[in-house]
Design goal:
- The complex is a heterodimer of chains A (307) and B (313).
- Chain A has 307 residues and is mainly α.
- Helices cover 70% and strands 0% of the residues of chain A.
- In chain A, α9 packs across α11.
- The radius of gyration of chain A is 24 Å and the shape is globular.
- The relative contact order of chain A is 0.13.
- Chain B folds into 2 domains: 26 residues; 237 residues, MetI-like (MetI-like fold).
- The radius of gyration of chain B is 24 Å and the shape is globular.
- By secondary structure, chain B is mainly α.
- Chain B is 76% helix and 1% strand.
- The chains are: A mainly alpha (307), B mainly alpha (313).
- Chains A and B meet through α1, α2, α5, α6 and α7 of A and α1, α2, α4, α5 and α6 of B.
């Protein structure tokens, strides 16, 4: 938690700098800083703004050159037709392409939520044990799951495909709930382990003197204090699961949102306006979630990757 | 900072506390708690990885139902003698070099900038998170259309600025297509790097900079000897992650160009995808996947080595 809120830490130790900042340099530095800030804001915002505007205008407006960065009029039609499933066209053999978006969003939520619950449970006890009850081989285990990052998804998806075909799990949320553990579980274990490392040990020591069992101490004493870390890990797991594209592409028939968006791209009748609206809908949950828990997520991220 | 030291000393103390008969019970408890996760990862991660390695030395039938005939390193021999592989390797290395350097440098520059005081800083810091929160695939689609030749925002921007005379099909040109996939991927990864760098910078004691300033160190000197030195552990982590992400990148390129035009953006992961799921040559695709995993591992290790040795003067 040393990495705290945006505004808090910097305000404290600056007075020396200000008084001494140097008459010559200060104005120039200020100009450079603001110039940099503007460039940075444009770098991030221009593509996002382009996407937002595209989703809010008609195909006719989209054809205008140069692109209307400030459109004269906006419409919600693209969103309405997507959400009501009336985008027209009958590619894919389904009656309506757009009609698949809402169910896909539902599946994405389902898969991500189940994974969050499952992984918090598994990674919670594992991360806690790695932090407090190290055993012979626990360090090796940690290094192995860190190193597992280099395994390409494409290198393990083949066996998954074969196994799921035999088990008849292809094109079900289970295929994803099972396979996503490959990357969400190691991440969750490392983030939680590092988070538990930061909590003082006295809390459970006091509890165990009272005769509480180790698991009871974890549930009753540690968990309430660890809430920020657990929330942050939950957000990270959700994000990873929501964003996953490759396994879903291979193991399902566009069951979740990302592969469906790619499917939209290859449909002729599906114009960029509708796709833009679908893309906005796909990025709203993760972006909102991260912004809402910005502070926790950033510190968990910083801790999670610091080995 | 004081909290960090307290924490560090505590961490160092604790193992010593657990001696005697309780220690074994504690360790057994640790094993039991880690066992479910470990078991799951063995089944889901280790076994499929080993299977792929096994596939790579067999002539696997295209339905993948059995291993097929053992062929030793034949698949690797085919891979290594194939011009398609080497051209894909070259593309991968160009993509990776651009991705790693730009993500790290832009991330670092952004973090240093957002660590200064200016009006609107909290807003800027929220902005830093946005690209990172976006799914790779989503930003691939976003940049695919942003770079589009008829309705793209990039064309519009460059036209307005007078850089180009008319709309260009950027993604139809091999050079600009590769460049744009790099820029798009960097757009997200630089934000991830920036978040980690900024967290590191926020723990940098202001006294260090002040002392150096009193000693007459200039901005550049302070950046090199204080900021960069302080960020060294973060820099190593970020660069290693960037290298791994670079080699394994798939989503952005798949969404933007699917490896095209021609094979201009066909990095190894795209080539493997085609081998496994379009041509369904599982043996060959698996051999390629083993090569890619090895490349990511070696790339990560070499980066660690380089960064550690370059700084240990």
């Amino acid at each position: 938690m040393t990495v705290s809120s945006p505004a808090a830490p910097a305000s404290r130790p600056r007075p020396v700098r200000n008084s001494r900042g140097g008459r010559r340099r200060r104005p120039l530095v200020t100009v450079v800083i603001y110039l940099g800030a503007v460039v940075f804001a444009l770098w991030v915002l221009l593509p996002v703004w382009y996407l937002l505007v595209s989703s809010l205008i008609t195909p006719a407006q989209l054809g205008v050159r140069p692109f209307p960065m400030v459109p004269s009029s906006i419409t919600l039609d693209n969103y309405v037709s997507l959400l009501t499933g009336s985008t027209g066209g009958d590619a894919f053999g389904s009656t309506d392409v757009g009609a698949r978006l809402v169910p896909a969003i539902g599946q994405s939520f389902l898969v991500s939520t189940v994974l969050v619950v499952l992984n918090l449970l598994l990674a919670g006890i594992a991360g806690y044990a790695l932090s407090r009850y190290p055993f012979r081989g626990s360090r090796t285990f940690e290094l192995t799951i860190i190193a597992s990052r280099v395994v390409p998804a494409i290198a393990i998806v083949g066996p998954f495909f074969v196994a799921f075909r035999v088990l008849e799990l292809l094109d079900t949320p289970w295929a994803l709930i099972i396979s996503y553990n490959v990357f969400t579980l190691p991440l969750a274990i490392m983030v939680l382990k590092n988070y538990f490392d930061q909590l003082p040990h006295e809390i459970e020591e006091a509890a165990s003197i009272d005769g509480a069992g180790r698991l009871r101490a974890l549930a009753v004493v540690v968990l309430p204090i660890a809430k920020p870390g657990i929330v942050a890990s939950g957000v990270l797991i959700f994000l990873e699961a929501w964003s996953e594209f490759f396994y879903s592409l291979v193991l399902t028939n566009q069951l979740t949102v990302p592969p469906l968006l790619v499917g939209f791209q290859s449909v002729q009748q599906f114009n960029w306006n509708s796709l833009a609206a679908a893309t906005v809908l796909a990025m709203i949950p993760p972006v909102l979630l991260v912004l809402a828990f910005q502070r926790h997520v950033v510190s968990a991220l910083a801790a999670g990757y610091d080995k | 900072m004081s909290t960090t030291t307290v924490r560090a000393s505590r961490r160092a103390d604790t193992p010593a506390v657990r001696v005697g008969p309780l220690a074994r019970a504690a360790r057994r408890f640790g094993v039991r708690m880690v066992a479910p996760s470990a078991l799951l990862l063995v089944v889901l991660l280790a076994i499929p990885s080993l299977l792929t390695v096994a596939y790579s030395v067999h002539k696997v039938p295209s339905n993948g139902a059995s291993l097929g005939e053992f062929v030793g390193f034949d698949n690797f021999a085919v891979v290594l003698s194939s011009p398609v592989f080497w051209s894909s390797m070259r593309t991968t290395l160009i993509f990776s070099a651009g991705f790693v350097v730009l993500s790290t440098v832009i991330g670092l520059a952004t973090a240093v900038l957002l660590n200064q005081e200016f009006v609107g800083r909290s807003f800027a810091r929220a902005l830093l998170i946005v690209p990172w929160a976006m799914p790779w695939l989503v930003l691939g689609i976003l940049w695919r259309w942003y770079a589009d030749g008829s309705v793209g925002g990039l064309n519009s921007l460059l036209l307005t600025l007078g850089v180009i005379d008319d709309y260009q099909e950027f993604l139809a040109d091999p050079t600009s297509a590769l460049l744009l996939t790099i820029v798009a991927a960097v757009w997200r990864q630089a934000s991830f790097a920036g978040i980690l760098f900024l967290s590191g910078l926020q723990t940098l004691p202001a006294e260090l900079n002040e002392a150096a300033e009193l000693d007459g160190a200039g901005i550049w000197g302070r950046f090199l000897h204080i900021t960069l030195a302080w960020l060294r552990p973060v820099l190593i982590t970020v660069t290693v992650l960037n290298v791994i992400y670079a080699f394994l990148q798939f989503d952005v390129i798949f969404a933007m160009t699917q490896g095209g035009p021609g094979d201009a953006t066909q990095v190894l992961s795209i080539l493997i995808y085609r081998q496994l799921f379009v041509v369904t040559n599982i043996g060959l695709g698996s051999a390629l996947a083993v090569v890619l995993g090895g490349l990511a591992l070696v790339g990560g290790l070499v980066t660690v080595k380089l960064l550690y040795s370059s700084e240990s003067r």
